[in-house]
Specification:
It is built from 10 helices and 10 strands. With about 375 residues, the chain is an alpha+beta fold. The chain folds into 3 domains: about 100 residues, no CATH class; about 120 residues, 2-Layer Sandwich (60s Ribosomal Protein L30, Chain: A); about 120 residues, 60s Ribosomal Protein L30, Chain: A. Helix 2 runs antiparallel to helix 3, helix 2 runs parallel beside helix 4 and helix 3 packs antiparallel against helix 4. The termini are far apart.
């Protein structure tokens, strides 16, 4: 049998081209709810899927559920990116998803502490998945606190007493707090993950209360200080190490920024159209109103209700992460939640107009995590 080498060469090239095409666009099952368009997928997809499935087996807290939801959303974005042939961004998103799933498995409620003293109730530490670290350029995918932390003080194990060093740190902030008397500051208490959820919730509030009490005794107005305990739900460091646990036993002074300063403003009609009254920030990918912003809105309600002839615009914004369609939906839900909150406090529905801008009107540069943090917001404005 004679072989036509020219025909064989053409056939060989055709096969190579077909493989290359299929490698980027073809058929397979779905990952994270996104239909596959490639015949193969990187091993990171299966690693991420297995990490999330492992985390789901131990979900027993709202914090863990939130982290798994984050991981699934990040996996979905990774699948979309990969099928569009953005390989490295997809792998970065998958590594961030594995971090979220790992955190969900790592942090969970502990057994109640003993009546006399507390035991070091440290659970099994799940094995960290491989290659969890994304490129530095993708660090902004990880959710950051929505407010600026002015100062952090730490506490001893199972303690809410301020030491002399911690008091000196607070002393350095007193002049700043007094100078900015038109701002509201959140005093946030936190714990490590030893002990039950209920116990840690109480302990975190006591830690925040110690800071508030000390600042008030130093002459800071109590109206400026909003106390809240987060329990173990907002760890800033990994609880997998004693050092990380020690750093999580903390209380923070957070700048929230009152947009209704204590001035002699009796009626919103004295303000020009377009004036911003309040800015509410949100965590990455979230639509829930944080307690500190609920408090600020409640403070604004009497003035809003006392100006019945003034209509308000509730404008929703997002950072640049995600597709245009998803950002529109996200900004719509954020505006809806703010509007519903004001209505629940007695503000007439007919006075409130919602507008969604998604990522079209950033107030800061979306190239940095801090910029994206500032752009995740809802603005309440005097309507034209």
């Amino acid at each position: 049998m004679r072989i036509n080498f020219f025909s064989a060469g053409i056939l060989y090239l055709a096969i190579i081209c077909l493989v290359l095409i299929i490698g980027c666009k073809s058929f397979q099952t779905a990952y994270f709810g996104v239909e596959d368009e490639a015949i193969t997928a990187p091993k990171e997809f299966n690693q991420t899927r297995l990490t999330i499935e492992s985390a789901k087996q131990s979900v027993d807290s709202l914090y863990a559920e939130k982290k798994i939801d984050e991981a699934m959303a990040q996996g979905e974005q990774a699948a979309i990116a990969y099928w569009k042939c953005f390989d490295q961004p997809a792998k970065n998103l998958l590594s961030v998803a594995r971090q979220s799933a790992y955190r969900a498995e790592l942090f969970h409620p502990q057994p109640p502490p003993p009546v006399i003293g507390r035991a070091n109730a440290t659970p099994r530490t799940p094995e960290a998945p491989e290659s969890m670290v994304a490129d530095a350029t993708f660090a902004s995918v990880v959710a950051l606190p929505p407010r600026m932390i002015l100062k952090t003080v730490n506490f001893g194990y199972d303690s809410y007493q301020l030491g002399s060093y911690e008091k000196s740190l607070l002393d350095s902030q007193v002049p700043i707090l007094k100078e900015h008397s038109d701002f509201v500051f959140e005093i946030a208490g936190h714990t490590d993950f030893a002990g039950s959820d209920a116990y840690n919730q109480i302990l975190s509030k006591r830690r925040a209360g110690s800071v508030k009490q000390y600042l008030s005794a130093s002459g800071v107005s109590g109206n400026q200080l909003y106390l809240i305990g987060y329990g173990e739900s907002d760890p800033f460091y990994s609880n997998a190490t004693p050092d990380g646990q020690a750093k999580n036993r903390r209380s923070e002074i957070r700048v929230t920024g009152s947009l209704l300063p204590e001035i002699a403003l009796k009626n919103l009609a004295t303000l020009p159209a377009g004036t911003t009254l309040e800015v509410i920030h949100f965590n990455f990918g979230e639509v829930t109103l944080l307690p500190v912003y609920q408090a600020l809105l409640e403070k604004a309600v009497p003035l809003i209700k006392g100006s019945p002839d003034v209509n308000l615009e509730i404008a929703g914004h997002t950072d640049s992460s995600g597709s245009a369609e998803k950002n529109l939906a996200l900004s719509l839900k954020r505006t809806g939640n703010v509007k519903d909150f004001l209505i629940s406090k007695g503000v007439s529905k007919s006075r409130l107009t919602t507008t969604v801008y998604a990522s079209d009107h950033p107030m800061a540069d979306n190239q940095s995590p801090m910029g994206k943090q500032l752009n995740r917001r809802v603005e309440i404005k005097v309507f034209e």
